[in-house]
Amino acid sequence: MKLQLALDELKLNDAIALAQRVREYVDIIEIGTPFVIDEGMNAVRKFKQQFPEKEILSDEKIMDGGFLESELAFNAGAEYVTVLGVTDILTIKACLKAAKAHGRQLVVDMICVADLPTRIAELEQAGAEILAVHTGADQQAAGRQPLDDLRVMKTHARRAKIAVAGGINSKTIDQYVALQPDIIIVGSAITHAADPQLEARLIKEAMLKAGGAE
Ligand SMILES: O=C([C@H](O)CO)[C@H](O)[C@H](O)COP(=O)(O)O
């Protein structure tokens, strides 16, 4: 089980400084979607240079141009790129083709997918290997959380690895660890914390205690 730090709202130098503070606790560093919009692949290159031992994820939430937009991230040094699970299966297959060509990985973000069981089967059939349950920021503001969707994903996924994101913090982490996802994604709980290092440590310790963390 890996801990993925999502960097969404920070400027480049602040994001690097925060990642340095929690470096020992995180396995994957996500260049979050707002960050990608703001800094582009420069942020991916910079983080790969500053954190060579970490896996970098470019959260592009690709909707079209799957091969090209995936390749931009892989050429910049990302290990993972994200595509939206609601997009055309042709785009997802194009992203998978780019990932295979570069020896990297594709994460399918299941945000706003209405029929998870059906889409999980379609995506696994297409060759998707990592599916991310995700309650987005706007959905969280309406009081939603990804725990129930994670249960559905764990029930229906046959082969894919499972990631989960959406407002997870040190107070709720035990509920998620109990379901044994492969990747737990945490953004604002750490980046907005008064003490980011403490929050990241508490989350990582909960993962280790459950015997899952790497
Ligand atoms: O992908 C994300 C969201 O769509 C904003 O870009 C976040 O990185 C993801 O939700 C994790 O962040 P938190 O929900 O703040 O933990």
Q: Would you give an account of this structure?
A:
The structure is a single chain. With 214 residues, the chain is of the alpha/beta class. The protein has one domain (2-209): Aldolase class I (TIM Barrel). Helices cover 47% and strands 20% of the residues. It has eleven helices and eight strands. It has helices at residues 12-21, 33-39, 41-50, 66-76, 89-102, 116-126, 137-141, 147-156, 173-177, 188-191, 196-209; strands at 2-7, 28-31, 55-62, 80-84, 105-109, 130-134, 161-165, 183-186. An eight-stranded parallel beta barrel has the order 1-2-3-4-5-6-7-8, surrounded by six helices. Helix 4 links the parallel strand 3 and strand 4. Helix 4 (66-76) packs parallel to helix 5 and helix 6 (116-126) packs across helix 8. The radius of gyration is 16 Å and the shape is globular. The model has no long low-confidence stretch (mean pLDDT 97). The structure holds ligand LJD2ZHX5.
Sum up the structure in keywords:
214 residues; alpha/beta; TIM Barrel; 47% helix; globular; binds the ligand O=C([C@H](O)CO)[C@H](O)[C@H](O)COP(=O)(O)O
CATH architecture: Alpha-Beta Barrel
What percentage of residues falls in helices of 4 or more residues?
40-55%
CATH class (first level) name: Alpha Beta
**Could you describe the largest sheet, including whether it forms a barrel?**
8 strands, parallel, barrel
SSE-based structural type = alpha/beta
Note the total helix count: 11
Q: Calculate Rg over CA atoms.
A: 16 Å
Estimate what percentage of residues fall within beta strands: 15-25%
Q: What coarse outline follows from CA principal-axis ratios?
A: globular
What fold name goes in the CATH topology slot? Answer: TIM Barrel
EC number: 4.1.1.85, 4.1.2.43
Enzyme class: lyase
Protein name: 3-dehydro-L-gulonate-6-phosphate decarboxylase
Family: Belongs to the HPS/KGPDC family. HPS subfamily.
